[in-house]
């Protein structure tokens, strides 16, 4: 294998693959990146047996071939190079990384022992990358980090009536995003971590792939796939939370409320509690703690219906408001500890975020 390519393009691809791979593994081939050079260009690929990622990059291929090398040293070497172009050449048991006046050589790993990088399953439909990127970013904040409950570490996706719904919850909040869907039926629970990290790369038309065992995305010559989460998701219970009985609404600029919540956070105490009180034409943002002090700030808002007072974890509020940046947000409040619903103006992509108020300390 012998090729010349743009250093920056290879460096970014190697860095993406490094993030996918496990930090430590007993199987060294799983720490490797598979380089395949053919006439159309270079494909960099990696797999940890659960996820697989293929990234296509332009290259002038002098000699076709394939090589497997450790991903992190490759990424670190490429990132440190200042040369605009780099040459990758297999030289005996090494992959030589050549730049003007410099040569670095990585030992080749046994390519025969690598499990391979699976192709994505069959295509189900195609959506604009910007819409899917927005949807994934919007629901990312409500994904659980508790591995003991794996069903809540995933993104629930299903189609209904020409719409694709993405939903996440950690049991204390929930995020839902709905976008137009022109494809086939889809009903899956996808691990969130790698997918959310990948979302910022999505651009142009993105094809969604799925079968009974795997889920995948492909775009602009790149492709990602992952095993599905097999545990049953509590659909009826979760969707029941979306059936609301609203008794009061607050409409205001999301950025203004978020800024006030951030200013109140240093006074929120160990529980991180911020209290919102709806009043005539305003929302009062209040925090207090014996050890931290107290803060109170009024934010202009349109208030209708019952005036509610509810306490929330500050970081949950900020996560709920973030997808509505530069927009007006509508807070729909319910009685007791039923979730507060955050929605925005109608558009191609519909965003809904639910946050459960905190119980008042006894």
TrEMBL record:
Residues 284-305 are annotated as: Disordered. Pfam families: DNA_pol3_beta (PF00712), DNA_pol3_beta_2 (PF02767), DNA_pol3_beta_3 (PF02768). Its EC number is 2.7.7.7. One of its GO terms (cellular component) is cytoplasm. Residues 127-235 form the DNA polymerase III beta sliding clamp central domain. One of its GO terms (molecular function) is 3'-5' exonuclease activity. The keyword DNA-binding applies. The keyword Cell wall biogenesis/degradation does not apply. Residues 1-115 form the DNA polymerase III beta sliding clamp N-terminal domain. It is found in: Cytoplasm. Keywords: Cytoplasm, DNA replication, DNA-binding, DNA-directed DNA polymerase, Nucleotidyltransferase, Transferase. It is an enzyme of class 2 (transferase). GO terms for biological process: DNA strand elongation involved in DNA replication. Residues 245-359 form the DNA polymerase III beta sliding clamp C-terminal domain. Belongs to the beta sliding clamp family. NCBIfam families: dnan. This is DNA polymerase III subunit beta. The gene is dnaN.
